[in-house]
Every structure is written in structure tokens, then in C-alpha cells.
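User:
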Amino acid sequence: MVSGSDSHGTPILFKAEKLGISPEELAKKSHKEISQTFKKLSLIYENYSTTTTKNHEEIVHNVFLVLKERGYLYTQKSKQYFDEKVGRFLPDRYVRGICPECGATNARGDECPECGKFLKPEDLIDPYSTLSDTKPVFKETEHFYLDLKKLEPQLKKWIDKSSDNWRKWVREFSKGWIREGLEPREVTRDMNFGISVPVEGWEGKVLYVWIEAVIGYLSASIEWAQKIGKPQEWEEFWKDPKCKHFYFIAGGNTSFHTIIWPAELLAYSEKYTDDSLWNKYKLPGESKREPLTLPYDVPSNKMLLFKGKKMSKGDGTSLDADSLLEKYSEDLIRFFFVRYAPENHDREFEWKDFLDCNNNELVANLGNFINRTLTFVQSKFGGTVPEGEIEKEVQEQIETSFKEIGKHIERCEFVKASEALLKFGDFSNKYFNDKAPWVSYKENIKECSNTIYNSIQLVNALRTLIKPFIPNASNKLRDMLNIKNEYDPNEELTTKGVVSQLENSWYLEEIPSLTKLGDIKILFEKIDREEERP
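Assistant: Predicted structure:
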């Protein structure tokens, strides 16, 4: 599991200039903050890198030069906006004006924050430069272009063959790009901040962030292999056709992962059939002369809207993870944003949904059953699991839930997985209520013991089933159930930076009778509905 901070591009440069600091300083500061936020949310990676490393630059240059030598990159002159007052070409976000689609007056040269329409600087009505408030002029410049038209037949064939398991909207969106016809795209910019163009005479220009950032998946994998002292290990993931690559992204980046990055991979993999290029452009640690793996699935989400608009930090219409963490638990934040993820259509963030997720689903469903069971063991059986045998109905429900939830996770149907988890919680609560152990404790202690034994197994099943969603709660429950010496790849990755064992733990291992429980604590706290809304 690798990723990294996309540290280049106009937004970084734009914000750095507003703050009066260098873009390098801002990128370093932002990367540190993002990493800290991920840690608070128990989001961990084998390697979380950044696109500012020397390793990344080396690999980007390698890819660029292979594409250039294979004839997929060519130069062309064009006219772009230029601010005569400050003497600079203007990247898209440095141009503002009126949106031609909705008439909003705060449209940027890349997008309108009001209607969400993707734009080009020349689309804007009454454009002006953000650097001087003057009207920019067109001036000739020269750039490299990626010839997507040349790669269109290969991309079409790959998408037609490989996209059946993608979300329907991602598949149709990507096929729509192909139907409309792919056009060459500019891959360099007139800027000083970014990955340099590895061609003599191209000083003062950098590679466009959209072509170099996606290469970060490969460079982060290579960096990871170097970190663990096995520089060839990345090939086990990138050269094995059985290895499935999943790209978890936001909807606005879909085309970069279903069109642009696959195009780069297809073009680059021609290196392996060319003796000269293979010997000249080997990647760090590379030994296998085999093509790179293309995406298996791109589980891209639609937009989570806030106050009726696409979230935008710059326009004050966004939720800040760190601010939410100051008031609410990591478990709630993680579970809510999976439970209400806009997997197939845009969704509006609603405060009511946030409260319901906590109070009705985590507290009243999962937490209620867990707390009732564990406190009953504590108060009636001295904190020791009573004797019993797992009942057929309970066994079947547990096996069905592991199979169903696991199937949904494998298919990247995380909303459905969360629904199946809550369905299991409903069964567990119904089982406890129907068996009424508070009654059988007085009338038939053996029956009561068996009910509680089965309830403990349901709690333990829940402990595993919730782990992909809320690992922090799962670990707390492990301590309450007094489970010792259980291998946890997440904990090893956090402490040692590696996962040394691969084992299947997606099943129930019964907790034996006479097991002494640990300290029992409330797992989820109710939120007062009158609290201040975010």
C-alpha cells in the first residue's frame, strides 16, 4: 500500500506566493501535516512518500525519456496567457474571470468552483491575472505534448477488456473519453517549481504535474523496496500479471488513472521489447524484462458536497479532518466517511447523517450489543466466559457475514460492506433480546451460560469484522476480550515499517470458556444532538 503527497503544481505555487514562502517550504510543511493527520486516523502505508524526492525525479525523467524516444512525446508551439506587467506566463490558476457556463465571477483558469465545470484559461470571459489584476495577453511558447491519439487504440482495447469490474460510472466515464476521441495533451509548463524537463535547452520549464504525479505510485514502490533493503522487491508487484492494482481516488482524478496513467504505462512498457532502451533506461533495482502492470480497478468516488457545493478549501466550503478530530473520535470519522461515501453519485454532507451514524449505528447497534454482552459477563459470571457450544444459527450467521462483507470489500463496495456489518449487528442484538439471558439466568443457568457464550463469539466476530473500518475500536475490543499474542500487521507496520507475515485472519476463532475478560469500557460515546454543528 503506497501513496504520497502530490507536492507540485500551480495550487502549491499559488498558495506559497500568497503566504510569502517558497513552494518547497509549503510542500514540506503540507506533507508533514498530511502524514500527521493520517496517523491520527490510523491510515497507514508501507510507504507514504512525496513527489519532491530525488528518487521520484529520477524515475519521472526515466519515463519521460522512454516516451520521448518511442515517439509519444513531441514539441509544438502555442499561444498562452502572459502577464506583461510582471513578465510571466500564467498557469491556469493565475487566471480568473467569468465562467462561460454559469456566469460565476470567481472562475479559475482550470475550473469553476460554483458549477464544477472544467475550464481552460482561454474559456474565461473578461480574464485577468491574479498577479497584477491586469488583462493578460497571448504570447507564443513551446511545450512537449503527449500523443494520446497514438495510444487510443491500445487504451480502448484495454478498457473494453478490463473495466467490467469497475464502478459503472467510472467505466462509462472512461469509455466516453475514448468515444469523444483523445487529443494530444501538453506535458510541460512555464514554471520553475516542479520536476525539470530532462532535455537540453528546456531550462525554465517543468513537467506538468498531471503527467509526473501519477508516476509517484511507481516511484513510491521503488523507494519502499530500497527502504527495506530489497531493491528488486518492487518488481514482485509491478511485473506480476496476477497482481491486482487498486487506485483509490476522488472523482476529479478519474481520467488521470483510467486514461493518462495507463497510457504512460502502455507506452513505457515498449521499453521491454527494445534492446537499446532496456539497457539504457533500467529503473532502480530493475532486473526483469517484463511490462508494468496496468490498473485492475479504479474505485473512484463521486463528490461529497458541502452546503450544496463541491468542497473547496479555498472557497470555505469544506470539512477539515483535523478540526473534526478535535471534537469527534477517529472511529466515527472513519466509519462515517466510508458509510456515506459517494461511491456512485454525489452526496451532500448532512449533520443529521453524521449524528445518526454515531448514535444509531455505532452506539445503539454495534456498541449496544457489545456493551450488554460484556457487562453481563462481568456482573453475572465474574468477568469469565461461561461454558457453552456455538449454536448452528449463530455459526451460520457469522460465516455468512464474513463471506458477504469480505466479498463487498474485495469488490470495493464499501458502502454495501458497512450495510452488511450493521445487518450483522442487528442479528446480534436480536439474538440477545430473543434469548433474554436476564430471565434464563434466574430460571435456567445452563441455557443462560450458552447464550452468553454465543454472544461472546458474536462480539469476537464483530471485533474482526469492524477492523477494516475502525481498527482502533477493534484493538480496544481485543483488549476487553483479553486476546493475547495475536499478530497484527497494522501494528507491525506502524512500529517497524514492514509487514513480515501474510496470513488470513478473516474468520472467527472461538474464545474458549473460562477465558477471563479484561477491563470493560464503553466503545462508542453518544453525541448530544444540540452540539455545535461543523
